[in-house]
Amino acid sequence: MLKISSQFDGGAIVVKDLTDPANIRLNIRNDNASHFLQWFYFRLQGAAYTPCVMHFENAGEAAFREGWPYYQACASYDRQNWFRVPTRYENGVLTVEHTPLANSIYYAYFEPYSEEQHLNLLGEAQGSGLCQIDDLGSTLQGRDINLLTIGNQADSDLKIWVIARQHPGETMAEWFAEGLLSRLLDPQNPTARALLDRATFYIVPNMNPDGSALGNQRTNAAGANLNREWLHPTLERSPEVYHVREKMRETGVDLFLDIHGDEDIPYVFVAGTEGIPGFTPRIDALQTRFKAALQTASPDFQDEYGYPKDAPGQADMSLATHWVGQEFDCLAYTLEMPFIDNHNLPDDDFGWNGQRSLRLGEAMLSAIWAVLPDLR
């Protein structure tokens, strides 16, 4: 007998009909306190060597539909090794066709990053002897908002802030954070050592622990899109942003990176602060140098495709990158990685995945090192 379950960390799906493996009818579940829907993650049991056809019947109602025609779902037998499975999109329905080779298999919108992985990441970082973990406060459901500080914390240090996973379903962002941390905490890595001689890093690997655990794509437990809360965060609606913003005011910011995933655009790209009132020729030149350095550090990055640049004075100041760039007169970027694949360097078996995100995080240190002398 077939069974689908999702009552686990990050799980989310609605089962409509499971009587026929050739016509499994599903709906993508809304975020818990929002109409937004995109993320799915579930376990299928009892289907070994059975051709399964899974129809996500409300995929046409997803917030980001433009990417579906190029999308391939993720699958794993052990939640460690994920691969892509044949997927098509027709008439508003996303269909996955796959024959599992074992009785238990997981399907997800993207390779997950679990709470257990998050806690292990914190433990490994602290165990390096180079990282201090601080608690900034609690989410609405009582989960910890942790900040990792790496460096001497001297007043003369440049202050590098990196936050990830404001949108909890964009799990590639925490994979990126893991890669950046692994290189930064390597005492034998010359780039890391040189950076830590001159800079202190402040890293929030998961800005949205509640949304991550609940299986949300976009919002926290209150239904807030954290990346629209930076102008006026409150403890009642967006404590995650409130606490991080207060800590930034305490430390200062010389470089800010907000790490995300984009559902529609099949490239790695950045979005800057061209539209904020305080955009200056100095920041413009810094942006150009940073992008050139990141292209050199990682061929996965490109600067041809991405979001349209805001006209002068037209930036939405509730976004993290815009608020931070304006508040601290600093280089600030949103980095986006694809859910689909990187069309510049496609991989039919794995698409864009956790390991590729991790490698991009490692490469980011080289780009930061290239612009470090000009940040202040």
TrEMBL record:
The keyword Amino-acid biosynthesis does not apply. InterPro entries: Cytosolic_carboxypeptidase, Pepdidase_M14_N, Peptidase_M14. Residues 105-375 form the Peptidase M14 domain. One of its GO terms (molecular function) is zinc ion binding. Gene3D superfamilies: 2.60.40.3120, Zn peptidases. The keyword Hydrolase applies. Keywords: Carboxypeptidase, Hydrolase, Protease. The active site is at E336. Its cofactor is Zn(2+). One of its GO terms (biological process) is proteolysis. Belongs to the peptidase M14 family. This is M14-type cytosolic carboxypeptidase.
